[in-house]
Amino acid sequence: MSALWLPGTEYEEVSPNSDSSNVSELFDLPAWILGNFDVLESVKKGLEEMTIWGESNELLGEVSPLYLSLHDKCGGSMVVEFIDGEMNIYDNPNGVLTNATELPWHLENLRNYAISARI
Predict the structure, then answer these.
(1) Cystine design at 54: which of 15, 60, 63, 67 (Cβ 3.0–4.6 Å)?
(2) 0.85 exceeded by the pTM?
(3) What is the DSSP letter of 13?
(4) What is the predicted pLDDT for the residue at 52?
(5) 98 prior amide bond cis, ω within 30
(6) Across residues 5-10, what is the average pLDDT?
(7) How far apart are the C-alpha atoms of 42 and 37, rounded to whole Å?
(8) Cβ contacts of residue 85 below 8 Å, gap of 6+?
(9) Beta bridge pairs of residue 89
(10) Where does the pLDDT of residue 117 fall: very low under 50, low under 70, confident under 90, or very high at 90 and above?
(11) Neighbour-count burial for 73-83, b at 16+ CB within 10 Å, e otherwise
């Protein structure tokens, strides 16, 4: 698992009615994932019930705009992004992720190079 920089990240809002057992601050999330799951399919199911929020970083003066790249022992890869206050979970077919931008843009950009290579 790694956390990468994604400017524009907006984490979810925590409702006062939220079940506290299904709420996690972003920096607690890796320990929860690694301590409870062994394959990505289980992580996906677990995350569907979670609300993830971000705490302001005093040094940065903002909430750290991060997204997560996860890999499992079966060779699976996925990305967890927080866009417009919603968690998006994607399978990552190439298994690679860099800082900024969202995974769908990365995949589209790779397609542009694949098309150019065929010409």
Answers:
(1) 63
(2) yes
(3) P
(4) 97
(5) no
(6) 96
(7) 6
(8) 10, 11, 12, 13
(9) 80
(10) low
(11) eeebbbbbbbe
